[in-house]
Amino acid sequence: MLTFTVLGPLRVFRDGEPVSLGAKKQRTVLALLIARANLAVGLDDLIDEVWPADPPESAVANVRTYAANLRREFAAAGAPDVLRRSGDGYQLTVGPAGCDALVFDDLRQRAGDARAGGDLAGCARLLEEAGRLWRGSALAGIAVGARLRTYASALDEAHLAAIEELADVRVDLGAAAAVLPALRELVTAHPLRERAQALLMRALHQQGDVAAALRVYTDARAALVEQLGVEPGPALRSAQREILTATSSAESAAEPVPAAGAAPPPAPVTPAQLPGDLPAFTGRAGQLRQLDEALATSRNAGASAVLITTIAGTAGVGKTALAVHWAHRVRDTFPHGQLYVNLRGFDPSGPPLGAAEALHGFLDALGVAPERVPRDLAERAALYRSLLADRRLLVLLDNARDAEQVRPLLPGTPSCLAVITGRGDLTGLVVTEGAVPVMLDVLPPHEANALLVRRIGARRLAAEPEAAEEIVTRCARLPLALAVVAARAALRADLSLSDIAAELRAASLAPFKQADPATDLRSVFSCSYRALDPAPARVFRLLGVTPGPDIGLPAVASLAGYPVEQAKEALAELVAANLVVALPGGRYGLHDLLRAYARELVGAGEAEPALRRLVDHYTHMADAGSRLLHSRRGHDPLPDLLPGAVPPALADAADALRWFAAERPLLVDAVRTAARNGPPPAAWNLALAMYVFFYRQGYLPEAVDALRAALGAARAAGDRSAEARLRRSLAGMYVKLGRIAEASDELRTTADLFEEVGDRLERAHTQGTLAQLNHSVGELDRALSYAEVARELYREVGHRNGEARTLNAIGWIHAQRGEFESALTFCTGALDLHRAGDNHVDAAHAWDSLGFVQHQLGRHAEAVASFEQALASFRGAGDRYEEASTLENLGAVYADTGDVAAAETVWRRAATILDDLGHPAAVKVRDRLANLPQEPTTPVTSSGSALKPT
């Protein structure tokens, strides 16, 4: 028997002796055949994998030669039939023990079963055996294309997960010392892997090294914040909380033990969102005392309402600095965390942040899964207040526009504190909510002088007291202006304070026209700006016109048209000059006044191409991210990147999610910018590219805003095809928002538009979407009508895959109507078309539908066989969610036939996969396990209400 190994370098053995595999490209062909073992692999897939771009004219002949060479080697090794022709391609037959990846998967699944059955020692032995199969990274040394890259990445991820599972079991067995070296090696290689960090914390705690365990949390949090701009997730926070609780609370031993089988309550999340404190914060003693007294009074009096404080004052007076500094001073008083949001009340680049969007961010920080975030503002606010009830959290609402903007964000419990900053009218909060007002004026002379001392040293001020006094006066004692001037003085030790004062005196720019103290802030900023080198000066100007509250380094590089290193150097100079603020996660921001000043400096001829590069950057990043999140997403290819745009590559779906999460606040603004400034296609290309993330993560109102802005651009440009695609995307958002009538209207208009432009394929797609929509609201007759129209259109344009998917949908609708014989006919027809077209993944969906129908008809053996076929294809494609879904359906057949052991086995496998994916459907599977009948039951009538994929 031949043995294939992919858990390291690709090798083939016959009774322990290696088999020659030939040249590099021949090995790539074999690797793809192994990845899709026991399935036919078409020539197109093999060619695309070996030559991802520009295959030679001889590609077909070359692949045939590679296959013939492999068959000859295998025949010489005594396995002539292991590689056979199938359709226009080839199929490699591999038994369960014939490939180390299959053995690894089986061992891991058996380990999961052992653990579920309480056999922790057996679980550990199986996982150790699985670990010994690995000899390096999967497919090491093989030239991989998109398919093999996905396959190898999935294997490597499974390897890391198995290491974590073994560590978890060893810790549960009390053998933490045995896994500490492996865990330390794992977190060193993968510092952002939160489960591994949490396990290391548990292992160290079990060894009695509490300090080291908590240091792991501190280091992990710092890495996450610095590299990703995110706080630790539930696993790390839960480990920290368990260690702190075990260390500090002897009362925990007296807690009642939960009943056997009871699900533990979800661990509360502890957010820590405060921005960094200013190391050189100076002054404001009176205001700090006022805030301290308000907090003390509230605590001593046993307040029955939430404490609210408002910090108000003119722009640049230091409201945010004071609020953040004081919040850091008192944060230990609020052990359940701190929430922060910049409400962008006076951001010149765009509108204020909506309360609904701010609440979405808070709920995310509090651990609410995206699909559980309510759509309605009032419901979001109610959930938010419920999560804060009886907990002690500090909520900092920065840069508020007015009282109405912040009211939905106020906690409802007296154990919490809300601090609000703003230059607008916040008196309504004082009158209605009883907020404690704290007013900020410019710094007193002695505090302004102290600020300069902290920044540039007492010796320089003492040497030139008159110049220092003039600087303070010309900065109007505003902290922002003083900080900018102090940064210039610190950077240019060769300049005397008299030189700097003379620069301020000579500046000829007019003062800002606003209701602030009479001060020439432009002259302050201009002195620092004029001292910049050309590249940082250009970056500063361009930052003034960027959408959103902040921006990442790669986007700045595209904005300026610079290489990333040059952009990084320019930003470093701007940060040193106090003109730009460095934020966590490698992001950068500007104070509103500095942004306004920068906008005045940039010319239209400079801003327009820069914004186009920036939007192009976001569009290509969003498109790449959406492809990773949804590989079957249909879209037209984007135009080539504009010269100077330098979007980085995204590694995988997790990387894409992190990018979208960081850039989400900017993307809608970027669409608006493109719709306003052009070119119009940039607006709809970006809006369509970001659709997948916004849809899946539940940022629906924001996505609707973006799509509407892009729709306006498409209509103004007269592009009916773009208008149709945008309307169809809007319909998808409306469906998820429950606005079914609006969705139907948009889809009908979409179908008409596609007919108008002669795009019958897109019209077919739209009719299929209308079928799904009507199915979702129980309109099965109407759904069937739309699906039949879609089928006919697909047939007319020769789109056999679309026709097959629609046949499957028609069969599924008949099944939902209880017409199982008709359903059987249509699903079988879909399967025949898919198999003729060599579409394994779509065929898997048809096999799954067929299995469900056979189950309902009582043809249980056939149903099991159909589900097994679906499982083989889903596993070959690496689609773990669909694998879990099919396992759940297969378990239902076993349960109905009284095979409780088989049902339990496959449902446990499904739950393991869903747990790995972090999918909430794992809860439903565990409920089925908990209620697994011991006797045969009446056959179920439905496995779900969702229309099968089309």
Offer a quick outline of the entry.
62% of the residues lie in helices and 6% in strands. The chain is mainly alpha-helical. Helix 1 crosses helix 3 (59-76).
Features:
950 residues, mainly alpha, Arc Repressor Mutant, subunit A, 14 strands, disordered C terminus
Secondary-structure map:
Layout: E1 2-5, E2 11-14, E3 17-18, H1 24-35, E4 40-41, H2 43-50, H3 59-76, E5 83-86, E6 89-92, H4 100-116, H5 120-131, H6 146-172, H7 176-189, H8 194-206, H9 210-228, H10 234-248, H11 285-300, E7 307-312, H12 319-330, E8 338-342, H13 355-365, H14 377-388, E9 394-398, H15 403-406, E10 417-422, H16 427-432, E11 436-439, H17 445-456, H18 458-463, H19 465-474, H20 479-491, H21 497-506, H22 521-530, H23 534-543, E12 551-552, H24 553-560, H25 564-576, E13 581-583, E14 587-589, H26 592-601, H27 604-629, H28 653-677, H29 680-689, H30 691-697, H31 700-717, H32 720-736, H33 740-756, H34 760-776, H35 780-797, H36 800-816, H37 820-836, H38 840-856, H39 860-877, H40 880-896, H41 900-917, H42 921-930
Parallel strand pairs: 7-10, 7-11, 8-9, 9-10
Antiparallel strand pairs: 1-2, 2-3, 4-6, 5-6, 12-14, 13-14
Helix pairs in contact: 1-2, 1-3, 4-5, 4-41, 5-6, 6-7, 6-8, 7-8, 8-9, 8-10, 9-10, 13-14, 17-20, 19-21, 20-22, 21-22, 23-25, 23-26, 24-25, 24-27, 27-28, 27-29, 28-29, 28-31, 29-31, 29-32, 31-32, 32-33, 33-34, 34-35, 35-36, 36-37, 36-38, 37-38, 38-39, 38-40, 39-40, 40-41, 41-42
Task: Please describe what this structure looks like.
Among the domains are: about 1-175, Winged helix-like DNA-binding domain superfamily/Winged helix DNA-binding domain (Arc Repressor Mutant, subunit A), CATH 1.10.10; about 285-440, 3-Layer(aba) Sandwich (Rossmann fold); about 445-530; about 605-715, no CATH class. Helices cover about 60% and strands about 5% of the residues. The chain is built from 42 helices and 14 strands. The protein is globular and about 95 Å long.
